[in-house]
Design a protein that fits this description.
binds heme C; 41% helix; mainly alpha; single chain; 3 domains
């Protein structure tokens, strides 16, 4: 074998290795849009609380994130899974991408497709930074060895694959898009209502397959899964919160008090205690400003509380 042949061989091998590396790094960049982000534990803890992850995934107060909370729907009962970093029972072995995919796309390479009882339909709008901070915070939680309870669903929903159809039919993934025509406070409010607070998940009517009726978003749900009326929170003055002042909205989210002197009840009281009362005053004001700026929607079937002067 002449020496030239060997050098050419080696040269080719080096080229191949080089291209493999380039390819590898390019593909890394494609699949991990989060690679450059550094999670902020404090911010992650804040989002974990105010977005309701903590309350929906915590049945026993001493076992934060261990799941087991029952969510009743017309399709059957869902039980929230363990999202502590336990490697077997929780999500300890999930990569940042797999976690982010769950929130952004409602599916990932570990589980497949998720049921929308996990409100990823709102969380999809979260910023990359908030998602990565959430992940970083969750990974600091105590690992809890609690096994997941299986959902008790009616056919065909008992078949996880069926959630694919729902996702494909009704779900639009995508981060919150900053509205250049409005200021920072308005955009923060919109982000908090649409992505973090997932207010529309409860405050909007749904069709028979559980899809939110688009042009009635936030206009109230005459019949929630538990039979409750969830009021219209658009600023319609007859049926919504049009006569509420911004301060009334802040007081409700912070203390659960209504502008007629009453206290809010049901699932909203839980939401206030576990989530919205933990929002910063700045964030509460942003939410109030945003809600008051929405186009009013008339919905006589889900009338809001009238303030008393
Ligand atoms: C309304 C209740 C509710 C809220 C609020 C909620 N989740 Fe969940 N979550 C669920 C349910 C139910 C499932 C199971 C869905 C399924 O089996 O497809 C789930 C599944 C998950 C999973 C997948 C775990 C696994 O092992 O499959 C992750 C991760 C998760 N949630 C994280 C979060 C985070 C982070 C938040 C807050 C931003 C959050 N959840 C808020 C109800 C909720
Ligand atoms: C888990 C479901 C749920 C979520 C999430 C939720 N709400 Fe509510 N909300 C309710 C229910 C149910 C009521 C009615 C409570 C009652 O009957 O006293 C209510 C009541 C209210 C009221 C009082 C309206 C009135 O006329 O009495 C306001 C305002 C409100 N919610 C705003 C919000 C905002 C803003 C968000 C998001 C940051 C939000 N809610 C998230 C379920 C929810």
């Amino acid at each position: 074998m002449d020496i030239n042949f060997i050098t050419r061989r080696i040269q080719r091998l080096i080229n191949t290795i080089f291209f493999c590396f380039v390819f590898y790094f390019l593909s890394l960049q494609q699949t991990t849009p989060y690679a450059h982000l550094i999670g902020d534990v404090k911010q992650g803890e804040y989002v974990f609380t105010v977005a309701g992850c903590q309350s929906c995934h915590t049945e026993k107060p001493a076992a934060t994130g261990a799941g087991g909370v029952e969510i009743r729907t017309p399709f059957g009962s869902f039980y929230t899974p363990n999202i502590t970093p336990h490697p077997i029972f929780g999500i300890g072995l999930w990569s940042r991408d797999q976690f982010a995919d769950a929130l952004r796309y409602g599916k990932n390479s570990r589980v497949g497709s998720f049921f929308p009882s996990f409100p990823y339909t709102s969380y999809t709008k979260m910023s990359d930074q908030d998602i990565i901070s959430l992940y970083t915070y969750i990974m600091t939680l105590p690992k809890i060895a609690q096994e997941n309870k299986s959902h008790e669903l009616d056919f065909p929903f008992s078949w996880r694959f069926s959630s694919n159809f729902w996702r494909l039919l009704f779900f639009q993934p995508g981060t919150y898009q900053y509205n250049q025509n409005s200021d920072e406070v308005w955009n923060r409010g919109a982000y908090l209502v649409q992505a973090i607070g997932h207010c529309a998940e409860c405050h909007s009517p749904r069709n028979f397959l559980g899809k939110i009726v688009n042009d009635m978003t936030l206009a109230g749900n005459p019949k929630d899964y538990d039979g409750a009326v969830v009021p219209n929170v658009t600023p319609d003055s007859e049926t919504g919160i049009g006569l509420w002042k911004e301060g009334d909205i802040v007081a409700l989210l912070k203390f659960g008090t209504l502008p007629n002197g009453d206290v809010v009840g049901g699932k909203m009281m839980e939401f206030v205690m576990n989530a919205s009362s933990k929002l910063s005053d700045k964030d509460l004001q942003a939410i109030a400003l945003y809600l008051k700026s929405l186009p009013p929607v008339y919905n006589p079937e889900a009338i809001a509380t009238k303030p008393e002067f």
